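Try this one yourself first.
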């Protein structure tokens, strides 16, 4: 089974021991957007500013160059630059996790090696997509990725995007790789999660904001969120209330957050998140093709949704 890599105790915002689900990744993580300038170049200064905002809001972890960070359309040098500026900005206050998953094992190794050399605290590695490898290929992919550094790895299981689900039997085998310590779950099969959690020591993170409380109820450690760009403080409050046994309070917070999830996911998550951040005059900017900016109609509806969800800065 997997073993926990000990987190840096200097990161005071990260719970590493003394509570259920202690983790080297933190508990409330946001999959951070990549701010862009008007000419679609990466806004590195904006990334540093946004990272500080997100940690101040309540995140104790950030994922850089995940899907929400438009990783399919950023170059390797841009990914490394983003990681470096975010580490410099908040690396002493939060865990900074580098997205390094691709459907090319050699490329994933290059990204993971560069992330380790830059000082990342962990790796997020999505299931190889499009080419649909058999189980043995998936296992060997992750074994190879684990060989390049001692960084803890969080698997990202999102079959709606990859076309390939990590079945319970596969996850149990992957848990035997020491560096694999956690799963970001956007599959939503809670029954299979219970099965794997009972058979391994893998930590579980909700990768679906609409199911955050449901995941907590079966023992998840925390969230890798998109709505955390806006409501990380309330996500943290919900988790703390639930773990303290104040279930009704957690339920009320969760219900109050549902309009936020609805609004952010009416279209693609990065599109709507950038629209929200642009409205708040926080670093965001435009989308790179093939993603496109939210339309005025979409933005107007988003403002209504976020106001209903009680997000500060939005009124109907």
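Now uncover the answer:
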């Amino acid at each position: 089974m997997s073993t926990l890599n000990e987190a840096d105790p200097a990161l005071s915002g990260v719970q590493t021991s003394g509570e259920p689900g202690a983790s080297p990744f933190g508990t409330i993580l946001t999959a951070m957007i990549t701010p862009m300038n008007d000419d679609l170049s990466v806004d590195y200064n904006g990334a540093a500013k946004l990272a500080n905002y997100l940690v101040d809001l309540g995140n104790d972890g950030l994922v850089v160059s995940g899907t929400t960070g438009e990783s399919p359309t950023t170059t390797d040098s841009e990914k490394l630059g983003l990681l470096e500026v975010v580490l410099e900005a908040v690396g002493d206050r939060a865990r900074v996790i580098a997205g390094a998953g691709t459907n090319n094992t050699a490329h994933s190794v290059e990204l993971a090696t560069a992330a380790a050399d830059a000082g990342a605290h962990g790796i997020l590695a999505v299931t190889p997509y499009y080419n649909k490898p058999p189980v043995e290929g998936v296992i060997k992919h992750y074994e190879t990725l684990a060989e390049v550094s001692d960084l803890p790895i969080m698997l990202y299981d999102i079959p709606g995007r990859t076309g390939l689900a990590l079945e319970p039997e596969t996850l149990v085998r992957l848990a035997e790789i020491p560096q694999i310590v956690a799963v970001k779950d956007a599959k939503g099969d809670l029954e299979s999660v219970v099965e794997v959690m009972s058979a391994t020591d893998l930590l579980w993170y909700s990768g679906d904001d609409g199911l955050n409380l449901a995941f907590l109820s079966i023992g998840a450690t925390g969230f890798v969120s998109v709505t955390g760009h806006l409501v990380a403080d309330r996500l943290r409050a919900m988790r703390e209330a639930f773990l303290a046994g104040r279930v009704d309070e957690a339920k009320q917070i969760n219900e109050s957050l549902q309009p936020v999830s609805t609004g952010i996911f009416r279209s693609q998550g990065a599109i709507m998140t950038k629209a929200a951040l642009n409205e708040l005059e926080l670093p965001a900017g435009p989308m790179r093709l093939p993603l496109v900016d939210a339309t005025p109609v979409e933005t107007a509806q988003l403002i209504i949704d976020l106001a209903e969800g009680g997000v500060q800065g939005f009124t109907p």
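Discussion: The beta strands are 28-31, 61-64, 95-99, 122-126, 153-157, 180-185, 203-206, 222-225. Confidence is low (pLDDT under 50) at residues 1-21.
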